[in-house]
Design brief:
287 residues, binds fe (ii) ion, 3-stranded antiparallel β-sheet, minor pseudopilin epsh fold, 8% strand, 10 helices, mainly alpha, 3 strands, 57% helix
Length: 287
């Protein structure tokens, strides 16, 4: 119950931030959207205040999806097609903090999302404001470019990572992605072993990535050092595994192999397939 309460507080914070952004933007017709978000927030608060009521994982997901639906239709309504510089937001997790147990502990998810990812969002906003809106001292442009690359990549990769996981995994790749994996790697097992090998080769801080390469029209695997180094330009990440120690150390200590092995149980293949379908629409002239 305590876990659900923390997640509800996170949804509540998200509602407040979205409402505040709308109020500040002062867009025509925004009153009805502010009202929709307020009503949704009342639902969230109902469970938050009456904390003793049983709230299942499904009910929590419905609350999250309802919030997401309001946000998606709002973006659609105003045809917002970009995030203004310096205005990125921490996305709420699409499940509660303890939903991925026993594979990833609640403690890790809480720190990872609320502390680490939040810091990347703040760092990215700061870098964008300095670079695009307020660059007075031109001699430090390199500093802000480094900050943008590090924090921006951190924000983007973590956002993919949260949605790449689910407590209701199919355990195996599905649909079009399954076919493409078999075409490019020979079999699911061969891909899994290669990806796991790449993940375990990451030293200290970095990622393993399954990517779509529009230049070759194929899937590929690449590791990333930190969030921004050692990666393959002009490719699109589909499935990412966080190999920073903050992602597993509290639970697995130095046993990286068990973290990687367990993680395959919570991959959201539906999400990875959706990313593949969108990404593979992009195909350059092959070279
Ligand atoms: Fe991370």
């Amino acid at each position: 119950m305590e876990n659900n309460q923390a997640y509800l507080k996170e949804l509540n914070r998200w509602a407040d931030e979205t409402k505040k952004t709308l109020e500040l933007a002062n867009l025509p017709g925004s009153e009805s959207w502010i009202e929709a978000i307020s009503n949704w927030k009342t639902n969230v608060n109902h469970y938050l205040v009456n904390g003793r009521e049983i709230l299942t994982e499904d009910e929590l997901q419905r609350l999250q999806q309802e919030g997401q639906r309001i946000l998606d239709s709002l973006v659609n309504y105003y045809q917002m097609d970009s995030v203004p510089y310096g205005k990125h937001q921490l996305p709420p997790l699409p499940y509660s903090y303890d939903a991925l147990e026993p594979y990833i502990s609640e403690e890790i998810m809480r720190l990872h999302h609320d502390i680490h990812h939040k810091a990347y969002v703040e760092g990215l906003n700061k870098a964008e404001k300095a670079l695009y809106l307020n660059l007075k001292d031109k001699s430090i442009v390199k500093h802000w470019l480094r900050e943008q690359a590090y924090n921006g990549s951190g924000h983007n990769l973590h956002t993919i990572f949260w949605f790449n996981m689910t407590p209701k995994s199919t355990k195996y790749p599905i649909k079009e992605l399954k076919q493409q994996l078999e075409k490019d790697f020979g079999s699911w097992e061969r891909f899994r072993d290669l990806f796991s090998n790449v993940a375990s080769s990451v030293e200290g801080v970095g990622w393993a990535v399954l990517l779509w390469n529009p230049r070759s029209g194929k899937l590929g695997i690449q590791s990333i050092e930190k969030h921004q180094l050692f990666q393959l330009a002009d490719s699109i990440p589909l499935l990412v595994l966080d190999m920073w120690e903050h992602a597993y150390y509290l639970q697995y200590k130095t046993d990286k192999a068990s973290y990687i092995k367990n993680w395959w149980n919570i991959v959201n293949w539906e999400d990875v397939n959706n990313r593949y379908l969108e990404a593979s629409k992009l195909k350059w002239k092959l070279y």
